[in-house]
Amino acid sequence: MPESQLEVIYDDIGPEYILEVYDPKLNFSGVVVLDNLNLGLAKGGIRMTGTVDPVEVSRLARAMTYKNAMAGLPFGGGKAGIAVDPKTISLRKKKAIIESFARMLKVIVPKYYIAGPDINTTEREMAWFADAHGDWESVTGKPADYVSKKGGKTRRGLPHELGSTGYGVALSTKVALAFKEIDIKDAEITIAGYGNVGVFAHRFLEEWGAKVIAVSDSSGTIYDRNGLDHKKLLTAKTKTGSVLNYPASTTSKKLSRDVIYELSANVLIPAAGPDVINRSNVERIKTKIIVEGANIPMAEQFEKQLHKKDVLIIPDFVANAGGVISSYAEYKGYDEKKMFKLVEEKIVLNMQVMLATVAKNGHAPREVAMKIARQRILAGAKRKK
Length: 385
Ligand code: NAD
What we know:
single chain, alpha/beta, 7-stranded mixed β-sheet, 15 strands, about 20% strand, binds nicotinamide-adenine-dinucleotide
């Protein structure tokens, strides 16, 4: 969908419901879009930014409809937005806004929509939401010590901070490498962005024997052809805020931030913001596999351009579905171990199903996955009647 979309687009999938709320006392507005409920109640996070509006939330809700369907979850797609820049208010006010939003959403939560974390909302905000709403099931991504007892069973929160998304991205990379007949132990990987997704992708790929030769964050790129040690890099990043403070060696090099997209490696994992691969660098991409950890790291036109050059691009809504699979596990009351197992089963299966079709018809993985998801959504509509 174009960046410049000015109004909500209605089509044969949705959006089915749009709820706009306004709290006159706290003077903030919010919106929830339930894009499609064919496969179950709508699932998607709450974004809190100064610019979020119904159009942006509707696009994100649509992405969730496809992501949940492709992940094989019994969830429809939804998303919520609170139009406040948290940097402009006190933490106390942020808490009051989240609590008010939770109470206003009682009309649809948890019957039609279950909330979760997104930009500027973390496990802390999810705990505030659940407390104010009053139902443990109203939201996922709660802290691990956020406990409830139901039918003699103890249920705990499963925060995204456990690394489910990065784990799914690492698994997608593993399956993509096998598809290209590259042994993971011979694989050289670059990771652009070293936050929740990038850190955990690095950890698991290293565990499986791959070499992560370059990692970037907003301060620059650190490169070592012998591989970057996960523990050392995480310590440097946590202590100093920059990957560039990785302990220097004879083979390590500090490079500029965006050069990471142009390095030679087997796999590039964008795990930061949107549109990092664009008109200015697309011609210089050298990796033959790109696993989209971030959402929309490039516009579809550039994916198509790279597909023509035989680059295998694992689309965001397939590769980064680990977070929402973890949400489902939390909703079902699973523990951490069972959650990781579920992420593995679902990501590996969905990757294999998608790539089997890619092998047959040569179409781009995004096109194939969209078709699979759409078939599931439309089949769900028949069951809903
Ligand atoms: P995060 O805020 O934890 O980390 C982002 C990282 O990117 C930071 O290290 C930051 O320094 C770095 N960064 C910022 N600008 C950069 C730039 N221009 N170049 C290189 N690095 C840059 O974010 P996250 O939770 O890891 O999410 C990363 C991406 O993955 C986002 O697109 C997000 O929407 C997507 N995603 C995250 C999850 C999740 O569970 N966290 C789930 C699905 C999708």
